[in-house]
Amino acid sequence: GELTSEEIIDGFIDRMNNVEADVKGFVSRLENSSGAEIKEIGDLRGIPIAVKDNMATLDFPTSCSSKLLEGYTTPYEGTAVKKLKEAGAVIAGKTNMDEFAMGSSTENSGFMTSRNPWNLDHLPGGSSGGSAAVVAAGEVPAALGSDTGGSIRQPAAFSGLVGLKPTYGSVSRYGLVAFASSLDQIGPLTRNVKDAALMLNILAGKDQMDSTSADVEHPDYLAEIEQDISGFRFGVPKGYLELELHPDVKARVEEAIERIKENGGEVVEVELPPADQALAIYYIIAPAEASSNLARFDGVRYGQRLGDGDIEEMYQKTRNEGFGSEVKRRIMLGTYALSAGYQDELYKKALKVRTLIRDQYKAVFEEVDFIITPTCPTPAFKMGEERDPLETYLTDIFTVPANITGSPAISLPAGFSEDGLPVGVQLIGSAFSEKRLLQAANSLE
Ligand code: GLN
């Protein structure tokens, strides 16, 4: 007979119980189906979905994997989470992440480091690394991540999953703890493109609670997903495959390009701004916005409060002991970029370059429907390897342009490296082209 929702949930919880000690993807989670709020409605009825720890939930704390917010529970629920529940999903738990979404590996989590289920000596990527790990390990069929500079797509690539960053404004950010508000988007990590389309159907839409959510008509992203791609034009950015790339990544991307041609797609070379340009301004704009957004974590309203002397001491102690070193680094970088005397040279200049990059992408999308690139220059990072912060920042080179331009982008599994680690390929589309982007992705799967 048919499985009941309780049996489905208990099956996934069994899986969590078996693998979580190794995978370490959840910072909080359901322990049994009797704790679950089951609604027998919707496309996701009885399906457990994991949520990154930076999205407001009533069922679990929202700590952004930061000591500063450890155990903090919001008095409200974010829109994306609410929509999942309205579609019948059960929130399975909150997933580990780099603190406040700053990082690429979960090593910056204030709590623990998650593992890559394909090879436990490797990392699942980040910052939505816990979300990627729990989907890749079969603990849930899908998870929500957030993507400010690649944090959905890079962990999806490292973990053999599909990761979709929707167009800026497609999905409400209400209830997402802001990192860099002009770049942040919520999106799904799933095992296949159809599940990503189903999740986008549920998540997308204008929300009164987020003035930056777009008032556009969203099509049914799952309908016509099997559309063949003859007539679709794909652009390979000139010089990108000559950048410093792991040879297996390069080989898998070249194979994906061949597959596009075999499937009837047209491939041409396109001229994009140098890849490191978007990266350079990302590491000004994102810290600048973060330094402002994180000013609220001062011991007054949210999470832990330390010190019992004057208010100055409270701010200092709360922030000094609550924030980890990467978060402090970003706050210092951002404060510097916004300070009088430097903001014209740094922040304001970065905004001008952002406009120029947007214009160049717009022009390229007159010629082609999609841009194809690697998702990340390498397969999953190894656990415990020394990487200096700048080295890690450089690995965001292929993902940040979609955030800088607001474009939708998807990472797809493209095969494996010689040592058996997943490799991802990225497709970027023009604003609100998710329907075709998902069709193109589906044809390559
Ligand atoms: N790795 C990038 C960073 O550290 C992206 C983070 C993100 O998308 N949240 O900023």
Automatic annotation (TrEMBL):
Domain Amidase intervals: 11-438
| Its EC number(s) | 6.3.5.7
- Annotated membrane-spanning segments are none
Give one GO biological process term: translation
A GO cellular component annotation in the UniProt record: glutamyl-tRNA(Gln) amidotransferase complex
What are the catalytic residues? 52, 127, 151
Its EC top class is ligase
Gene Ontology terms for molecular function: ATP binding; glutaminyl-tRNA synthase (glutamine-hydrolyzing) activity
PROSITE patterns per UniProt: AMIDASES
The entry describes its oligomerization and partners as:
Heterotrimer of A, B and C subunits.
Q: Which family does it belong to?
A: Belongs to the amidase family. GatA subfamily.
Designated name of the protein: Glutamyl-tRNA(Gln) amidotransferase subunit A
- Native source species: Halonatronomonas betaini
